Amino acid sequence: MTRLRLALLSVMLAFSPMQTILAAGTVGEAPNCALTAIDNAQQNYALKQFRGKVLFVDFWSSWCTPCAQSVSFLNEMNRDLKDKGLQIIGINLDEVQDDAKAFLAKHHASFTVVADANQQCAKDFGVEAMPSSYLVDRNGIIRYVHLGFRPGEAKEFRALAEQLLAENPVRK
Amino acid sequence: MKTTQQALRALVLVLCACASACANVAPWERGNLAKPHMALNPDPMQSALRTHLYGSREASTGGGAASGGGCGCY
Predict the structure, then answer these.
(1) Does B1 lie at the interface with A, CB-CB under 8 angstroms?
(2) Where would I find the H helices in chain A?
(3) ipTM of this predicted complex?
């Protein structure tokens, strides 16, 4: 009987989505991702270089319909809040880079768009859905995580960003 | 009894071996699944119309297919 239980337990463990469980829990310090410009692989970015600014990190793909809907909202927020210290970074996760370029030719993005070539940044952030947005405060701490994009939530997003912009960084 | 145990062990091994093929598809790996021809329902609008017509004729609604593809977008 014990052996049967053990066998059942091993089967359950084999089928359980352990990776999903381990990937949960993303709020904390934002990982320092190494990213490249979407049109120039030689131009590198590191998330830490934006420390001191409020970061809006948006993971997107060309095939994701809500991602396309969010571009105009991100452009608007970039236009209004960039001077106040908001840095919007759109991190593309397309497996085919040309798809991302075609998307950007159709949907003009006025904010910084970079590529996460080996998807390491997405893994470090624990991206669970497309699109996924992370609001990082001036101290590099992830304060809000949002999965998906629905136009009705734009106001709420903006209010959260403005709230973080109003906070002063902690001097270390 | 011994044969049963051996059969059980073999079954567990086979099941575990099969389970190794179950992998989580990361959100950014769903590009191919998001393509229109991967959708279970190729024309959601037409299906919705047909369901509506069926419902109005039969005075009942059946279990219709859900629209959308496999991109898993939120």
Answers:
(1) no
(2) 2-15, 18-23, 65-81, 97-106, 120-125, 154-166
(3) 0.70
